[in-house]
Each structure stands twice: as structure tokens, then as C-alpha cells.
Specification:
The protein has 70 helices and 28 strands. A hairpin with a 6-residue loop joins strand 18 (208-215) and strand 19 (222-234). The longest helix has 47 residues, at 1358-1404.
Length: 1458
């Protein structure tokens, strides 16, 4: 099926390797995904870390250096749970951290290991141990609470999931275990279902399970369902099922019928099994995911199969619900993060077409509001309507997907049905069904309201409105308003309880009513806030406050307040939109600052100015430029003044302020006087050419060189407005300055009238004629001699045309414009004339400026200042002196002028000139006029530079605005430690005070200050300084406060060691052992130090504190320092028995202890170490080898041990070991021992070994010892031959050694009469008559009587055979007696039986008792008779050839008959 048409859409959201996750960590134990929000990955290389992947921005993972065995992100928030096993124990330490707040929320130490854990809700962790299940809430201080014990079916299972239903009343624990022996590859699934209310468990077979909520028709309450999937192997058959059952059915209510379905696995997936189940609560679909990547989709209500496909080529080990889209996430071994979602466009057509399940298709469409079933729904509706099933038709219309039947046509169809008497109208049935399902649309609301109003049942209408069942509209309002006055407050409160969003809509409807809202906006808002409905209250207020009226200032403030406290991002958006302008700005600014919305907080003018001020003082020039350019909220005048005083190196912030708020002349004057000409050019050329005339005018006022002004004008050219430029120059009688500019414009064809007028004025210049005329008029007592304008014109003309006459005119004339003429004289270079003019008119500042700037005579300026004694004059003199580097003179002048404006320049110059004594007086004057932190701070610094520490103490005790922290840091940086000490002590900056005292070598005081600071950094600084000064007692005090911090311990240790202070460091660590907060690192570091510098104390330390050591670290230290005995002990404590044994054997002179080694060797995992130990003991401790072998006897291959010893030539050494293990009947051991016994000629042990243990080469051993010089050994050889069934060889050996008894016994045991008879012949041949007799007796059962008698008779040994013969006769006589006895008893039994029968016959025939004598007597036994034989048979004939008389049978005389 094409992917586009598949009912389930698969999408690769992310691949973990693409964001730096190593594939080795993409496993079930390293990756967790508790919800669709976060993935958490635990890495152990190259360093221990935890990676948190926010699925909203997956390409920006958060990696933190964390060591843990498991990590889980909270399903909903940035809360991280961590689990780590405590070293050397089976206990787990659990911690919960809030990542956003960077704070630990809770921690707990579990007494047993947690084998599985999971977030079962946003506030609850489920913890599974080997025996029990616990719940741990993240709220409060509660510890984990035991919920239930695990059932037996989950023993030895790997737990893979744990879930709870939404009510937390039902819990399910799932584990997997190896399959049955018949099908081991099919993993077995086990499940424990637990009821919290009933406190009972049920064990089931299942691989995956999940809970769901479903509303059963006829039951208003939700039913809790559990679905579980299983695949089992029974009686040779594999069964795969999906089950859906209801839990805790509600009495008296309709319940859910149990459903089940088959899971069809393809042949290639025969051993595949479910690993996860997710239920889409949006669509009521069950997703079953298998290990090999199969996906099964089933309908929850019917358990009908919907879809099956393979979604991943790699095994899937992790899934989680994607509740927002009704699907799920899956993670496979390749690291793909896959998102499975329902294809809303194709699922319904697929079910109706491919599956031909029309009912399911319609249900899916209704349930998920999905397209594709329109025709089916309409067709079904028409069928129901035609069948007059109006109720069912109404229900179908109410649930129709995407509301396709919620139309006016449907209403009209129900309206058209005739109403039957006594029955509910179909239209009301339809509306009633709609009301139970939810809210009516506008048309339905209007039609229903008409019915209700017509029936005068407006109370129903009021209830529906209160429950937000009706959609409000103008038409509905017009319908119900006549004569109706509802209780709106009651209605709103009622709606709020059930439908908050509906309450918002209702409140907005009221706000638009004619005559105004019937309820006060504030009251409505409070109703929402009482129920903590912040979003709804905000939505209402944002709508009603759109007009931005002043009378709504309180509500504007209120909506911003509640959102700044709860949802700052919403408040930020409101402020960004500029919706409100009447709120309480200071109040909102404070809240913005608390909420982290600093830019919004700055919209308050004062706070905004403070922000600019702070940014400027901290060097954040770009931020100052941005705010001055973008913000409309700061005080322009105040900001301008501050920026001018601050004298920032970058003038752009000042340009922004002055250009935006009309301070161009001030800007120009500032830039020019501070020699920032390039900024003037930049402003005119790039920022605002239109303001160039004002810039030129100010430059002219500031006596700027003409060349610069001309160049500036020409650089702008045609962009300059001519008229205002001409006006500015004409005002200052500097029109000729524009000649080149104006001529340039004319050459470019300018037709501007102002250009041509200006040129005509300048060309009409007749100075000499004019001077002569004016002299006659002004100087010769005419009526116009005192004319102001004429005197001005005379002097100005003389300045231009005849400068030598100017001084005379100045002295003779009194009524001219002194300031203006003086400026013209300056421009013309007539400086003495200008000075005379300004002096004549008491323009002392201008006069002194001429002396300073033009004549450049500071001495004359000082003399002039003394003469006039004006502050402004002294101020100008001071500035000039400052510019010339005469700092002390300048300071004196500033003090005379009482001018505090240039304090920044004075301070800077004083520092450069190192005239701090003079600066003190100046700053004392300045601080009387201004309250500037800079001034007070510099005063303290000047005191310090002049070593006036007493004044510093007095000053800081008085009110001041000095930046004491900054001053203290500056003093410290410049090594003025005594002064810095005073400052730091006053402001209680104990950390800086401590390091300052260190610099002053006042170590005890430094330690006291560090104690108050209680900062790890401070403790370290003081500690290290004390170490360098060899103040080890104080260093130890500091060190004890440092080493309790794990991260700082190693730094302290390295510092001591690098300086060779080994004993002192050891003393510090030893003292640290007794601290309340002593941790594993201290114990471990002390052990490392002992290993390096004080070896004799190492073992004692290890034994005392083995449970509190970081053993791996100490192992490395002992290995480096070659402390093999201690290293061995550590390996044992860490259960590294293989390493322990290897260390002992490699470094035995120091590490070997026999008893310890025996304890270790039996615990090693590498069996080769057993044999290495054998070699080791053989070489170094052979006397204890048997003791070692005794310990490892159950673990070694005895054959290999014997081979080792045989090759080494020391087999005899392990004889005790071999004796001890011979019970195992091992061939190599038996043969080795037998060989030893042979060498030792220990025939008794050899015979015992042969008797008890038969696993050896018997013939080989017999052949080896059959020629042994020791008789007993040869007997053993014969014995072996006998045991091996080689009778003749055994007898031959016995005969050779004349051990006839053994030969006879062998012959007897052989069971072969030939062997026995041959032995008889041998005895006869050897003349061994006694042996012959004995052999007959020993081999009695084998020797045939005739052979024995014949041999005896022929060899004249009848006497020696006679015992045998007697025995033989006695045996056979006994046998005959037994036969006779048996026959007599049989006859007696027969006779008794006959008598019994006769008695029976006698009782049956009574008449036989009357004729007893008529019967013949019965014959006697043994008597002959007609037809009868009597007696015994005649005796047999005598035996011939044996010389024995005949005997009666059975030793009885013959009996004749009677």
C-alpha cells in the first residue's frame, strides 16, 4: 500500500546519532522517553553525562555532566529524576532535580535496589524492586510508600513496564523471561494486575498492557478498561491474543463486554513478541508494537483488527504515547525516533473499503470527527428516518462526523414529521439528543428557543444558557429579550462551574448588550479569578478593554498583574502589542522585572533611564545605543545631560537622543568641544542632513575653523536647505563662508532664489568708502554719533577692510554690540581687539576665552581671573589649565570657581598626574554640589593613595553614595590592601576581606573572615595562602571547610602535594574523617595519600573504612605505588577476586598470605587461575600445595592437576590431595596413586585402591608389577588379573609364587570347571596332596565329582579326596531328603483334600453311613495291587570302578511290599 494512502502515517522525527548520541548508548537501559515532550539519554563515555532532548527543539540537546545508572524526565515539566547505586552496596540513591530552577527537589536512599522505575503520573514515580513496588510523590517530604508485593510469576523476570490508570486505582506490572525449554527463543511475558481498593493481585500471561477510559452506552460514568497482548507456547502450539476487559464493573450499570482478537504474526516473525502497547484516547485505537517492528492496530470498543504493517526494520525497544496527535513515538536500535499518527484523510475510506467494515468506519468517523464517511452517514440517516426511527436518527445526526447532518435541512426534516398524539415531537427528540451531546449551533439554538418561547418555558432557556448549551446570536437575543430579565450573575456562576470557555463567551455577550454590561467588569473578572481561571479572565479583559479608555486603568493594571505573576509570556505579548496605555506603569515595571521581562520593565521612564545609566556605566555601549534609538519612554533632557556628563567614547547614543528630541545645537556644541568631529560629519551626512543649518550655526558660535565648516557644507551639498543655512550665517555675519557652496549650487544649475540673493549681498561690498562715511557720521559729533547700528557697522567694516583702525574705534565708541562685534573680531583674528571689546563690556568669560583659546596665554588668563574674581572665569581658566596638563593649578582654579561640572576630566587628569593630595580637596568641594557615586568613590581612592586611612574610616561612616564594592576591588587590584581591608570590612564582603587579609599576611583574621564568607572559593584562597606561608594550623581550619565539597577536594590535595606538604595534607585529611559531612572522597583521598607518603598506615585505614572508600581510585593508587598487599585487600573488598589472586601470585613476597589466598582463589571467575595457583604454590610454597588443592578440589580438573604435577616431577608431593579426591574415580588420579603405591611398595594401599576405584589401566598395572621383586606386589598383579577375568594369568602368577591359596580362590571365582580341574591336575603333578584336597573344597562347586574321584583314585589320593566325597554325598543326600519330604507333604495335602471331599459327600448322602462294612478296605500305601504299583523303586546298581559298596537310595534299606 502506498504510504500516502496508508491509514497509519510513519514519520522520522529525529535520529539520535545526528545530535551526537553514540550508537552504543541507544539501548533500553540508556534511553528513556516518558512522554512526547522529552527524550533522556544516559552516556558513560567519553564522560558520564545525561542528554535531555526537548522534542519541541530536538536539534538543541541539553547535555549535563551527570553520573547515574538511570535518568527519567518528567512527562510534563523540566524535572529530572536520577538513580545511582551506592558503591559497594545494593542500595540505590534517588534524586529529583528541577532543571529550570537548578535546584534539588527531593532525594531518598532506597534500602534495596530499584530494578525498574517510571513516571506513572506528572507527580508520582513508580519504583520496582526485586520484591515490591513503591510510589514516590515529588510533592512534600514524603518518602516512597510501598504499594504491593510482586507475585511469584514475576520472579527472575526483567521488568519492562509499569503503568496505572488515570484514577490510580489499578496498576499493572509487566516483565519478560526466557521461553520454555521446548521454544526458548520465544520470550515469555508475565503480568501482575493490582487493585488498590481491593488490595489484591492477579497474575496473568502478557507481554504488553495499557489502560483506557470508555463510556459504555447507558452508563453516565466512564468505565476503566485494560487491554493486554500475549503470545504463549502451550502443547506445541503458539497462541497470540489481544484482550480487552473492564476493571471494577459498576453495580447496576451497563458494563463493557469482554473482547478478544487474534494477533497474526507472519512466518518470518514466528518468534517475535509484543513489547509495548499504546492506546489513542483521541480515536479509541489500540497500537500493539512488537520487538521486530510490527505494528498492529485494533479498535478499542470492538477489538476489530484495523491495520498491520512493519514500521521499523530495526528492533524497537521504547515507545510512548503522542497524546496530542493520537499516535505514538517509537525508538529503535538504530536511534530513529519515529512518530506514528492516524492518517485522518484515509483511515475511514480504508476501513469501509479495504476492510469492508462499514459500522467501524462510521464509528471512527463519529468518534474522531473524521472525513470519508459522509455518504455512509447520510445513507444511514435516511434509512432510519424512512423507518420512523426518529430517536436513532437524531442520535446519528448529533454524532455525525464534522457535523455534516447538523444543518437547517435536518431541522426542517424533523419539523416536517407529523406529531402523534401523546408522543414527543421528533423535533424535540432531536434537540434533546443534541443537548445531551454538547452545544447547539446558532441555527439550532434559535429554532429551539422559538419552541420554548412559544410554550412559555423560558426557565428552560435560562438553564440552557447557564450551561452554555446555546450559541448566542443577535437573533437569539432579539427573541428572548422581550419581557425577560434574567439573573446574569447567577447564569454566569452556573456556566463557570461546567464550561469556563462558555462563561467567557457569555460574559462577552453581556459586554455587548445595549445599555452596557449588566455586571461590572471587575466583578466578572473576580469570578474567573476565584476559580483560578487566569486564561479565561485574560481573554475576557483583552476583549472588553480594546477601546483603551482611561477609566479602565485599574483593569488594565489588573490583567497585566495576574499574567505577569502566572503567565509572563502572555503579559509580554500584551505589552508588545501596545494595547494599553493607562495602567500603573511603576507597578507593572516592578512586576516585569520580577518576571524577567527587563525590557518591558524599562518602559517606565525612571527605570528606563536607570537602565541606560547602568548600561553606560558598565560599558554596554551597544545596549545604550539600541535603547536610545528604539525606546520612547525615557526622559530626553535627563538622558541627554547624563550622556554628556558620561562622555562615552561612542557618541551615537547622544546623537540618537538629540536628533529625536531637538537638541541639535547642544549635540553640536558637545561634539565640537570634545573634539568628536567625525561624529558631526556622520550626523550631517548620514543621520539628518536637514539639520545641517543648525549644526553650522552652532559651529560658528563655537568658533569652529572655517575650513571644517566649509568641508562639512560641501560634503552634504544639495541635501542642505539653503534658506535656513543662509539665515544662520547671516545672523552671525558670516555669509561669506557660503561663497564656495553657493557658487557650486549655481554651477549645478540651481534656481533657488535664496542662493542668488545671498550671492548678490556678498558681491555688493564697498568697505573703504563706507568707513570714511561712517567716521564722519559717528566720530564727528553728529546727530548719529551714538547710533548703535552705525557704530556696529563702522567697527565691523573696519574689521573686514582696515583692521588697524579697530582698536581705536573700540576705545572711542561705547554704543555698539559688544558681544557680536567681539565674536566677529575673533573670527577676523583680531584677538587683542576682541579681548578689549569683551573686557569693555564686562563679558569676562568671553574675554578670558580669547586669552585662553586665541591669544593662548594662561598666565594672562590667571591674572585676569584674579582681577575679576568670577567663578565662570576661573572655570574657563581651570579647563584650559587642565587641557595643558597643569593639573594642580587647574584643581585650584576649579576650587576657586566652585565648578563641579568637569569632575570626570579632573579625576582622570589627577590620576595621570598622580596628584591625589590636590584631588582630595577638589572632590570635597565637588561632593558638596553633586551626589555622584563616582565622586565619593574617587575621594576614597584618593585618601587611600595618600595613605589617609583614618579619613577613609571617617568618610564611610558618614552618608555617602560611593560604590564601596567597586572602590574596594580597585584598591585591592592596585595592592592598596590596608584601605581595601577597611572597605571590605565595612560592607561585610567577607570573601574579599579574607583574600585582602591574606595579602597583608594577617592569616588568622583572614580565616575568621573566610568563616563568615563561608564560600568554597574564599576558603581555598585563604587555605592556599596559609600553605604558602606555612601557616599549616590555619590552613587546616580552611581545608576542613573545603574538603567537605567533593568537587574541591582534589584541588586542595594537589596544591598541598605540589608544594611538598605531605604530612600536613595527611593531617588535614585525618581531621576531615571526623566531620559530620565527611564523604567518600575524603576517605579515599586519605587512602591515596597513605599509599604515596605513609605506607605503614594504609592497611589499617583500608580495613577500618573499606565501606566508605572509592575502591577503584584507591586501587589505582596502590597499583602505582606498588603496595601489593593492600592492593590485594582492596580487590577482595571490591569483589575483584581474579585481580586479587593475580596480584598475590605476581607479587607474592609482599602480598601472599596462605589463608587469605585460599579464600580468594575459590571465588575467582577465570578457571585458569586455579592452575596458575597450582604452579605458583609448586614453585614457592610446595609444603602448602595440598592445602590449596583441598580448597579448590571441587573446581579443578583433577586430570590436569595430575598432569601438571607429573610434568613437574613432583607427583608424590600431591599424594594427600589425590587420596582426598580419589573418590571421584578419575583415571589419572587412580593411575598416579597406584604408581606411587607401587614405588612405595605399599601393596595394602594398592590393593585397597584397586578394590575401590576401577578407573585405570588394569592390565597395564598388572603387567608392570607381575615381575616385581616383592611377593605381595606380584600377588596384587595376580589379583588384578583375577579382577580383569584373566584367570589363567592370575593362577599362573600364583602358581609361580607358590601362593596356592590365591590360585584356588581365583579358580573358584572364575566359574570355569576346566580352570579348576586344571589346577587339580597341577597339584597332583606337583605332589601337593593337601593342596589337592583344599582345592577340591575351595572349588567344590566347579569340580565335577567323577573327575575328582577319578583323579584321586588314579593318583592314589582317595584319602585326600574323601572329605570332598563325603561333602558331595552329604549334599546329594540332603537334596534327596528334601525331595522325599516334599513328596510326603504333597501326598498329605492330597489325602486331606480327598477326606474333605468325602466329608462333603457324606453330608450330601446320609444313607452311606448305614452300610460302612459293605465297602472294601482301601489298599495300603506301598502295597501292590491289581493295576497299582507299590513301594519305592528298587535301589540302583552299585557304582563300578570306585571300590565302594552299593548303598541303598537316600541312605535307607530297601523296602519290600507287604
Amino acid at each position: 500500500m502506498a504510504a500516502a494512502n496508508a491509514p497509519i502515517t510513519m514519520k522520522e522525527v529525529l535520529t539520535l546519532p545526528s545530535i551526537g548520541i553514540n550508537p552504543q548508548f541507544i539501548t533500553f537501559t540508556n534511553v528513556t522517553m516518558e512522554s512526547e515532550k522529552y527524550i533522556c539519554v544516559r552516556e558513560t563515555a567519553p564522560q558520564n553525562s545525561v542528554v535531555i532532548i526537548d522534542m519541541s527543539m530536538p536539534m538543541q540537546p541539553l547535555r549535563r555532566p551527570i553520573t547515574a545508572d538511570s535518568a527519567l524526565m518528567n512527562p510534563n515539566s523540566r524535572i529530572l529524576a536520577l538513580k545511582a547505586q551506592l558503591p559497594g552496596t545494593t542500595q540505590d540513591h534517588l534524586q529529583i532535580f528541577n532543571i529550570e530552577l537548578k535546584a534539588k527537589m527531593k532525594s531518598h536512599q532506597m534500602p534495596e535496589q530499584v530494578v525498574f522505575w517510571k513516571w506513572i503520573s506528572v507527580k508520582m514515580l513508580g519504583l520496582v524492586t526485586q520484591t515490591s513496588v513503591y510510589h514516590w510523590s515529588i510533592e512534600g517530604e514524603a518518602e516512597p510508600v510501598k504499594v504491593f508485593d510482586r507475585t511469584a510469576n514475576l520472579a527472575n523476570n526483567q521488568i519492562i513496564n509499569y503503568k496505572c490508570d488515570p484514577s490510580e486505582k489499578w496498576l499493572v506490572l509487566i516483565g519478560i523471561a526466557p521461553g520454555s525449554p521446548e521454544r526458548p527463543q520465544l520470550v515469555k511475558g508475565n503480568m501482575q494486575l493490582f487493585s488498590v481498593e481491593q488490595q489484591r493481585s492477579q497474575a496473568l500471561e502478557a507481554h504488553a498492557a495499557s489502560f483506557a477510559q470508555l463510556k459504555v452506552p447507558g452508563n453516565e460514568n466512564q468505565s476503566t478498561l485494560i487491554s493486554f497482548a500475549t503470545k504463549s507456547f502451550n502443547a506445541g502450539q503458539v497462541t497470540s491474543k489481544l484482550h480487552v476487559i473492564e476493571l471494577g464493573a459498576q453495580p447496576g450499570k451497563p458494563s463493557f463486554s469482554k473482547k478478544q482478537a487474534d494477533l497474526f504474526f507472519p512466518p518470518d516473525f514466528a518468534d517475535d513478541f509484543p513489547v509495548a502497547m499504546q492506546i489513542s484516547h483521541k480515536y479509541n485505537l489500540i497500537y500493539v508494537i512488537t520487538k521486530l517492528g510490527l505494528l498492529f492496530v485494533y479498535d478499542l470498543e470492538t477489538a476489530a483488527a484495523v491495520y498491520r504493517n512493519r514500521i521499523s526494520p530495526d528492533p524497537i525497544f521504547l515507545t510512548t504515547e503522542a497524546s496530542s496527535v493520537g499516535g505514538f513515538y517509537a525508538v529503535n536500535r538504530r536511534g530513529q525516533v519515529l512518530l506514528a499518527t492516524l492518517n485522518e484523510a484515509t483511515i475511514v475510506p480504508f476501513v469501509s473499503g479495504q476492510l469492508n467494515n462499514l459500522e467501524l468506519a462510521v464509528n471512527l468517523a463519529k468518534r474522531g470527527n473524521l472525513p470519508g464517511a459522509e455518504n455512509l452517514v447520510v445513507q444511514r440517516f435516511q434509512e432510519l428516518f424512512a423507518q420512523t426511527k426518529y430517536k436513532e436518527a437524531a442520535e446519528l445526526a448529533a454524532e455525525s462526523p464534522q457535523g455534516i447532518l447538523r444543518t437547517p435541512d435536518t431541522v426542517a426534516k424533523f419539523q416536517s414529521v407529523p406529531v402523534q398524539a401523546g408522543q414527543t415531537p421528533p423535533l424535540l427528540q432531536y434537540f434533546g439528543t443534541l443537548l445531551t451531546r454538547g452545544k447547539l449551533n446558532a441555527f439550532e439554538s434559535l429554532e429551539l428557543s422559538r419552541l420554548v418561547v412559544n410554550q412559555n418555558k423560558k426557565n428552560l432557556l435560562e438553564n440552557w444558557l447557564a450551561e452554555d448549551k446555546l450559541e448566542c446570536s443577535e437573533e437569539l437575543g432579539d427573541l428572548v429579550k422581550v419581557g425577560y430579565s434574567p439573573d446574569y450573575l447567577f447564569l454566569l456562576q452556573t456556566i463557570l462551574r461546567t464550561d469556563p470557555q462558555g462563561a467567557v463567551n457569555f460574559a462577552l455577550m453581556m459586554s455587548q448588550m445595549e445599555g452596557g454590561c449588566p455586571i461590572d467588569y471587575n466583578t466578572i473578572t473576580d469570578l474567573f479569578l476565584q476559580r483560578n481561571l487566569i486564561r479565561e479572565a485574560t481573554a475576557f479583559l483583552l476583549d472588553v478593554l480594546k477601546p483603551n479608555l482611561p477609566e479602565h486603568s485599574f483593569l488594565q493594571t489588573k490583567v497585566l498583574e495576574i499574567n505577569l505573576v502566572t503567565f509572563p509570556n502572555v503579559a509580554d505579548a500584551i505589552l508588545a502589542n501596545g494595547m494599553f496605555s493607562h495602567y500603573d506603569r511603576p507597578r507593572i515595571a516592578q512586576l516585569c522585572e520580577k518576571a524577567g521581562l527587563y525590557v518591558r520593565a524599562l518602559q517606565d521612564p525612571d527605570i528606563h533611564f536607570k537602565y541606560i545609566e547602568a548600561a553606560a556605566k558598565t560599558g554596554q555601549i551597544k545596549e545604550v545605543e539600541r535603547v536610545t534609538r528604539e525606546s520612547n519612554f525615557y526622559d530626553a533632557e535627563k538622558t541627554k545631560n547624563f550622556l554628556m556628563e558620561a562622555k562615552l567614547p561612542d557618541a551615537r547614543p547622544l546623537i540618537n537622543v538629540c536628533d529625536r528630541f531637538g537638541f541639535v545645537p547642544d549635540l553640536t556644541h558637545y561634539l565640537y568641544t570634545n573634539n568628536m568631529l567625525r561624529y558631526i560629519e556622520g550626523y550631517v551626512q548620514k543621520v539628518n542632513p536637514g539639520n545641517a543649518p543648525m549644526v553650522v550655526g552652532q559651529l560658528l558660535d563655537d568658533e569652529c575653523p572655517e575650513d571644517f565648516i566649509k568641508g562639512l557644507i560641501l560634503s552634504v551639498r544639495s541635501l542642505l536647505p539653503v534658506e535656513p543655512l543662509v539665515d544662520e550665517c547671516e545672523k552671525r555675519n558670516r555669509l561669506r563662508l557660503l561663497t564656495q557652496f553657493l557658487e557650486h549650487l549655481v554651477s549645478e544649475g540651481s534656481q533657488d532664489v535664496h542662493v542668488h540673493n545671498a550671492l548678490a549681498f556678498m558681491t555688493a561690498d564697498l568697505p573703504h568708502e563706507l568707513i570714511e562715511l561712517l567716521e564722519k557720521i559717528v566720530l564727528q559729533n553728529s546727530a548719529f554719533s551714538g547710533n548703535f547700528n552705525l557704530q556696529n557697522l563702522l567697527i565691523l567694516t573696519a574689521i573686514k577692510a582696515d583692521p588697524p583702525r579697530v582698536m581705536d574705534y573700540i576705545n572711542r565708541l561705547d554704543n555698539f554690540d559688544g558681544p557680536a562685534v567681539g565674536e566677529v573680531a575673533v573670527e577676523a583674528g583680531l584677538y587683542e581687539e576682541a579681548f578689549a571689546i569683551f573686557k569693555k563690556f564686562n563679558l569676562n568669560v568671553q574675554a578670558v576665552n580669547v586669552l585662553l583659546d586665541n591669544i593662548q596665554s594662561i598666565d594672562r588668563a590667571v591674572e585676569f581671573a584674579f582681577r575679576v574674581e568670577e567663578d565662570a572665569v576661573w572655570s574657563q581658566v581651570a579647563k584650559a589649565q587642565l587641557r595643558e596638563g597643569l593639573v594642580s593649578d587647574a584643581i585650584e582654579s576649579f576650587i576657586r570657581a566652585e565648578d563641579a561640572t568637569e569632575f570626570l576630566d579632573v579625576i582622570r587628569a589627577s590620576e595621570n598626574a598622580d596628584v591625589y593630595s590636590d584631588l582630595v580637596g577638589y572632590l570635597l568641594m565637588v561632593r558638596q554640589k553633586v551626589k555622584e557615586p563616582k565622586v565619593d568613590s574617587e575621594l576614597i581612592y584618593a585618601y587611600a593613595k595618600t595613605d589617609r586611612l583614618g579619613e577613609i574610616e571617617e568618610f564611610i561612616l558618614m552618608p555617602n553614595v560611593a560604590n564601596l564594592q567597586g572602590v574596594g576591588d580597585r584598591l585591592y587590584d592596585e595592592t592598596l590592601y590596608e584601605a581595601a581591608k577597611i572597605i571590605y570590612a565595612f560592607i561585610s564582603n567577607w570573601a574579599k576581606l579574607a583574600v585582602t587579609l591574606v595579602k597583608l599576611k594577617q592569616f588568622q583574621s583572614a580565616v575568621d573572615a573566610a568563616r563568615k564568607a563561608n564560600s568554597s572559593k574564599t576558603w581555598k584562597e585563604v587555605c592556599f595562602a596559609c600553605v604558602d606561608a606555612e601557616e599549616f594550623r590555619l590552613a587546616q581550619i580552611c581545608g576542613l571547610n573545603i574538603i567537605i565539597q567533593v568537587d574541591d577536594l582534589e584541588e586542595v590535595s594537589e596544591y598541598y602535594q605540589n608544594r611538598g606538604c605531605f604530612n600536613e595534607l595527611i593531617s588535614l585529611m585525618e581531621s576531615g574523617l571526623g566531620l559530620e559531612r565527611a564523604h567518600m572522597g575524603i576517605f579515599t583521598e586519605l587512602g591515596v595519600l597513605y599509599a604515596r607518603y605513609r605506607y605503614e598506615k594504609l592497611m589499617e585505614h583500608i580495613k577500618l573504612f573499606s565501606t566508605r572508600l572509592n575502591i577503584p581510585k584507591l586501587i589505582r593508587a596502590c597499583d602505582e605505588q606498588q603496595h601489593w598487599k593492600e592492593l590485594t585487600y582492596l580487590y577482595i573488598q571490591y569483589d575483584e577476586f581474579d585481580n586479587a589472586a593475580t596480584t598475590v601470585m605476581n607479587h607474592s613476597p609482599e602480598a601472599w598470605d596462605h589463608m587469605q589466598f585460599k579464600d580468594v582463589i575459590v571465588k575467582v571467575a577465570n578457571v585458569e587461575l586455579y592452575y596458575k595457583a597450582v604452579h605458583f604454590y609448586l614453585q614457592e610454597h610446595p609444603d602448602l600445595l595440598n592445602d590449596l588443592l583441598h580448597v579448590i578440589a571441587l573446581r579443578v580438573d583433577h586430570t590436569r592437576v595430575v598432569d601438571i604435577m607429573r610434568k613437574a616431577g613432583h607427583l608424590l608431593l600431591v599424594k594427600p590431595y589425590m587420596v582426598a579426591v580419589q573418590s571421584n574415580n578419575v583415571s589419572a588420579v587412580n593411575e598416579a596413586l597406584n604408581g606411587i603405591y607401587v614405588e612405595e611398595e605399599d601393596y595394602e594401599r594398592l590393593r585397597e585402591s584397586i578394590d575401590l576405584y576401577d578407573s585405570f589401566d588394569q592390565i597395564g598395572l598388572a603387567q608392570k608389577i607381575e615381575k616385581h621383586e616383592l611377593l605381595e606386589m606380584r600377588r596384587v598383579a595376580a589379583y588384578i588379573y583375577k579382577k580383569a577375568g584373566r584367570w589363567k594369568q592370575s593362577i599362573a602368577l600364583s602358581k609361580n609364587d607358590k601362593i596356592y591359596k590365591d590360585a584356588m580362590e581365583t579358580a573358584s571365582q572364575s566359574g570355569d570347571h576346566e580352570v579348576a580341574e586344571e589346577l587339580l591336575v597341577y597339584f597332583i603333578e606337583q605332589g601337593k596332596k593337601e593342596c589337592f584336597a583344599s582345592c577340591l573344597f575351595v572349588c567344590y562347586d566347579l569340580v565335577r565329582a567323577d573327575v575328582a574321584l577319578e583323579l584321586a583314585w588314579m593318583n592314589n589320593m582317595l584319602d585326600f579326596a574323601f572329605p570332598y566325597l563325603l561333602q558331595f554325598i552329604r549334599e546329594y543326600t540332603g537334596k534327596v531328603d528334601e525331595l522325599i519330604k516334599d513328596k510326603i507333604e504333597a501326598q498329605k495335602e492330597t489325602k486331606a483334600k480327598e477326606n474333605e471331599e468325602k466329608e462333603v459327600m457324606a453330608q450330601q448322602n446320609m444313607y452311606a453311613q448305614l452300610l460302612p462294612l459293605a465297602l472294601p478296605a482301601p489298599p495300603m500305601p506301598g502295597m501292590g495291587g491289581p493295576g497299582m504299583g507299590g513301594g519305592y523303586a528298587p535301589p540302583p546298581m552299585p557304582m563300578g570302578g570306585m571300590g565302594m559298596p552299593p548303598m541303598p537310595p537316600f541312605g535307607m534299606p530297601p523296602m519290600g511290599s507287604y
